[in-house]
């Protein structure tokens, strides 16, 4: 069975209408989770903690989509 890892991260955005962080050094890395359900729970908790800050946003990144083992050259390999 394929492992499907998810990264939860967030922080303050420059403008709430886009996804550019105010300061990338202040990005909050919540953690890496083994399934979407756990990632969603962590995301929801952080989102609720920052509900009063209109510039704060948290995201779930599907890490398993970054590297497709079935493809000869995945997008990440092409960067190097």
Structure description:
It is a single chain. Helices cover 24% and strands 25% of the residues. It is built from two helices and three strands. The radius of gyration is 15 Å and the shape is globular.
* Class by SSE composition: alpha+beta
Number of helices: 2
Number of strands: 3
Low-confidence stretches: none
Biggest sheet features:
3 strands, antiparallel
> What is the CA-CA span between the terminal residues?
28 Å
- Could you estimate the helical fraction of the residues in percent? 10-25%
- Strands side by side in the biggest sheet: 2-1-3
Mean residue pLDDT = 86
Classify the beta-strand content into a percent band: 25-35%
Order of helices and strands: EEHEH
* Tertiary shape: globular
Radius of gyration: 15 Å
Labels describing this entry:
3-stranded antiparallel beta sheet, single chain, about 80 residues, 2 helices
């Amino acid at each position: 069975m394929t492992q499907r890892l998810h990264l939860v991260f967030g922080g303050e955005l420059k403008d709430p209408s886009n996804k550019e962080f105010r300061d990338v050094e202040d990005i909050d890395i919540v953690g890496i989770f083994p399934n979407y359900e756990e990632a969603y729970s962590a995301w929801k908790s952080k989102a609720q903690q920052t509900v009063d800050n209109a510039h704060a946003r948290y995201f779930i990144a599907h890490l398993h989509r970054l590297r497709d083992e079935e493809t000869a050259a995945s997008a990440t390999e092409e960067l190097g």
